[in-house]
User: What shape does this take?
Amino acid sequence: MFEAIPNNVSLSDNPKLQRALLKWQPQFQDWWREMGPEGFQEDQIYLRTAVSVEPGGWANWDFVKLPDYRFGIFLAPPRKQEQIYFGDNIGRKLWDQVPGEFRKELRRLIVTQGDTEPASVEQQRLLGKTAPSLIDLRNLFQVNAEEARHLWAMVYLLHSHFGADGRDEADELLERRSGHADHPRILEAFNKPIRDWLAFFCFTTFTDRDGKYQLASLAESAFDPLARSTNFMLTEEAFHLAVGEKGVGRVLRRTAELMREGVEPASVGAIPLPVIQKYINEWSSASYDLFGGEDSTNAATFFAAGLKGRFQEGDERKYSDHVALESVYEAEVFENDHWSKREIPLRRAMNACLLDTYVADCRRVMQKWNKILEDVGIDERVSLPSSRFNRHVGIYSERPYDMTGQPTTPEKLAQMVAESLPTREDYELVQRSMVPVYQPGKVANWIAPPQKGVGGKPADFEYVKFH
Ligand code: BYC
Assistant: This one.
């Protein structure tokens, strides 16, 4: 069996770990069959599979059936640093093993990260039935298979470093279910339904992007196996973000082209621009909460211990102070009828720092999307809601803020939420556009064709061979 799992963690030399994984594997296979992509189990999909960590040669591209996908376990090559480079333990050797005093925190971080991976697969499991093209269908399955591999990456850490309770946690990762009333996934955005492909593209733009920043901060960890696992996961994650960004871009292009021709998009089964904006509002604001509170003692503990760094903490050009005990983060909050600057000790503000980096990245994406609208020749633009809008976690959940980040009343916020997030009618309208298109090179009417193919193949390649 272990020859069948591509890995660079010497699995075959570790009988104890083998036994643990052997016990877990059938449960995983059951889960992948039941909660992974529905249908398409007998079809041949042109997929990328991670087979090593060599830059340039890490992935193998071939036709594979979903049940036969090979979920490998890989650690990225060692970092250039051999010592911890932030927090209270600067200068000590990076940890190969879990230090007893941080065991609970590390397990919690790994479990939370691991929980999102199967959750996203569950959220997306029905989308294959309405794929707008073959290339989109294979992209969906690529994302699903790689998120499932990321579950393996976290389960490997739980099994190899956390003993019996790690094994229990690994089991529970397969027991919770996205959106389940009694056993939901841990973080809220992973319990929201992804009803259609516009939601999928927004999710991969905004929620996978949270994944990128969380993984990047764990890739700085003093616990070296976690850092190296997440570092390699980022290699795959880049493609998922591109699927989202390009996907929404293609929807915007199609809608804008129709608007330029004076055609009402909904009249030909395409998606009106205001509805696209509402989806952007929904998934960006849901993803802001994933960063946790702006003022967080957990975040301070994670940073102090060296468990979780800032984005690119190890880059000397980015940060001169890796202790972060002297500085404060100033958050603008509206309280007692006026704006004031709340000073948060920097360590406690690490979630806010990561969210700021994320928001800047989302703004860059918006500029690219607006360039598409500009190039097509329409005047309308899409925008990113303020990271204070519609928050349920953190200092901006203490009182209502509107889409632009200005204070508002609970009544006005409720009205704005009703107007700026998709309604049932909006979901139904988008649902009506979701007709499957499975002929090579053809795309559904609500989305522009992709500009190029993937995996070295042209856009009209037969990416899925139906049985
Ligand atoms: N929902 O101190 P606080 C991805 C809890 S996505 C529910 O403010 P903290 C992917 C929190 O647990 C990336 N609960 O925040 C994307 C805490 O509970 P306790 C996933 C929440 O702890 C797409 C309390 O509230 N990875 O990879 O500093 C497809 C106070 O929390 C939420 C990670 O998240 C929430 N939104 O930060 C596939 C990295 N926010 O302790 C995959 C690992 C907070 O009072 N996780 N809470 O019981 C973490 O680093 C941190 O747990 C969080 C929260 C950033 C999530």
Observations:
- DSSP finds eleven helices and five strands in the chain.
- The longest strand covers residues 328-335.
